[in-house]
Amino acid sequence: WWSTPVGDDHSRHYAAQMYHFDMDRTKFVNLYFYLSDVNSEAGPHTYVRGSCKRKPKTLLKDRRFEDDEILQHYRPSDIVEITAPKGSIFMV
pTM score, two decimals? Predict the structure, then answer.
């Protein structure tokens, strides 16, 4: 789907604009294709380095998390943004 920045909490939750982890484990793969240039201000895919191996108990919930909740448990240097020009493809 086409993901764009949205403002209200309800829309951000359902558009997966907030931090979360997919519950599907190894049965699931996402393929991303950037249709436009993506930089830090243009909605890059973002993940937390090391979170696949270690999650604090407070983050082991099936819900969306605010940035400040994530930064209570991980360093800012653990936040990774995937920026790339249009036409770029990656899989997670």
Answer: 0.70
